[in-house]
Amino acid sequence: MKPASRSSFRAIKDEIARRIGEREWRPGALIPGEEALAAEFGAARATVNRALQELARAGLIERKRKVGSRVATHPVREARFAIPIVAAEIAASGAAYRYALLSRDERAAGDEDAARLGVEPGETVLHLKCLHFADERPYQFEDRLINPAAAPRALSESFETQGPNEWLVAAAPFSRAEFAFLAALPNAEEAERLNVSPAAPVFVGERRTWLLARPITYVRMVHPQTHRLRTEL
Q1: Spatial separation of the C-alpha atoms in residues 205 and 228, rounded to whole Å
Q2: What's the number of CA atoms in the CB half-sphere (13 Å) around residue 175?
């Protein structure tokens, strides 16, 4: 992209967010100063400052006077409501953890994919189904969509040995998240995977994350009705 096409603060903000999201600038890294960025993007220093201020409010960077700006190690919103790592959650309960990848499908988004993830129909999505066990009992059925436009390295991951939740927390920083929790009846696959009755309510968690305006992932996490959600704020 030519500097002239990056001169607006929105374009500068989006490009810096892209570099952070694709790990060109890693967590904790010091990013170039305003003067250097202004020269790179062909913009006024005040325009760069506005872009950085918005990124700081989104929790993607940390700014300190006389020190500069760094990529946030932990996005602010993640610190306020921690996204749990299932393996750590199970280990903390004293149970033995096991993970199984059930399916991995890279495809063009259909209407349902597009509605869930917030992308346009036809865009490439990665669909993963996983099962997490505690002491060999089904603990969580994970049905997840990932947007490769926001997390391109996901396409090169097999997810055979590491679950997408754990991978995304480490590899795909987000600036906004939406959570929903509900009781529902399981569909046929969920009931079979969790070894529960189709007539027995299950505990469902749904989560979407974004990097600025770009959706990263949608996940539906289904647990047996005995599940309890615990968190610390």
Answers
A1: 11
A2: 23
Residues of the chain with CATH 3.40.1410.10: 81-223
For residue 144, the one-letter residue type is: R
Residue 12 dihedral angles phi and psi, to the nearest 5°:
-65, -45
CATH of 3-73, one of 3.40.1190.10, 1.10.10.10, 2.60.40.10, 3.40.50.1100: 1.10.10.10
Domain 81-223, CATH among 3.40.1410.10, 3.30.930.10, 1.20.1250.20, 3.40.50.300: 3.40.1410.10
The model's pLDDT over 178-195, given as tens digits with 9 standing for 90+, comes to 999 999 999 999 999 999
Spell out the SS3 assignment of 100-166: EEEEEEEEECCHHHHHHHCCCCCCEEEEEEEEEEECCEEEEEEEEEECCCCCHHHHHCCCCCCCHHH
37-81 pLDDT per residue, tens: 999 999 998 999 889 988 888 888 898 887 889 998 765 444 445
| Of 201, 199, 207, 203, nearest in space to 182 by CA | 203
